[in-house]
């Protein structure tokens, strides 16, 4: 079974509700950090659209267990599980009983990570791109064979830095997830904007070089 890790958890509880909620999202169609396979080869991974939702739908009333650090002896009791695949995120919501066991396992997890354990049914492997260093190939997971568990992690390095989760009362966690998604989208837009700015700067620099050295020259720098 493979395990993928990742981000922040906050704990706010409504004592009258007698329940704790864990809400968050997992990344879809976005590359992981650099991982290593069993043969020592380095790769980046992406979970394809529909991969999560198809597997969860096929599981019927069953759902991924909620663990701490992928340890089946450290399973957190769950009352219900909900999910929604939306764009490049799988939103999840676990309803947990407000009992001492749950409180103990969620204690001091302000800087925790979120992960998931799975086995692959179908995948596609590609040679690395020229502009990507430090990897041997890229892998696209198109279908899970199993999606056994989602884990809250302690002191683990995240595989997908885009993933976040929050715990507390239902209203608080849903607001936290919405706020986190907006923040992620802003970061993505900023990255895209910076890419376009860099491209424009490079275009201007090439144009200036051509204008500077172009007089009487038979060869000019490509503007493409």
From TrEMBL:
Keywords: Hydrolase, Protease, Viral release from host cell. Residues 9-166 form the Prohead serine protease domain. GO terms for biological process: proteolysis. InterPro entries: Peptidase_S78_dom. The keyword Hydrolase applies. It holds the Pfam family Peptidase_S78. The keyword Hydrolase applies. GO terms for molecular function: peptidase activity. This is Prohead serine protease domain-containing protein.
């Amino acid at each position: 079974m493979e395990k993928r890790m990742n981000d922040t958890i906050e704990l706010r509880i409504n004592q009258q509700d007698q329940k704790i909620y864990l809400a968050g999202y997992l990344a879809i169609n976005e590359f992981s950090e650099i991982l290593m396979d069993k043969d020592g080869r380095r790769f980046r991974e992406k979970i394809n659209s529909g991969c999560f939702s198809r597997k969860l739908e096929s599981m019927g009333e069953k759902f991924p267990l909620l663990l701490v650090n992928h340890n089946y002896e450290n399973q957190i009791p769950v009352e219900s599980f909900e999910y929604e695949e939306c764009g490049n995120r799988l939103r999840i919501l676990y309803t947990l009983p407000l009992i001492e066991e749950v409180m103990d396992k969620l204690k001091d997890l302000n800087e925790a990570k979120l992960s998931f354990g799975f086995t692959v049914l179908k995948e596609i492997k590609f040679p690395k791109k020229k502009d990507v260093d430090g990897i041997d190939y890229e892998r696209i997971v198109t279908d899970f064979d199993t999606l056994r568990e989602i884990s809250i992690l302690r002191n683990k390095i995240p595989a997908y830095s885009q993933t976040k989760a929050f715990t507390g009362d239902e209203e608080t966690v849903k607001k936290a997830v919405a706020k986190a998604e907006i923040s992620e989208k802003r970061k993505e837009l900023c990255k895209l904007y910076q890419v376009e700015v860099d491209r424009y700067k490079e275009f201007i620099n090439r144009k200036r070089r051509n204008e500077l050295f172009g007089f009487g020259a038979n060869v000019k720098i490509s503007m493409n």
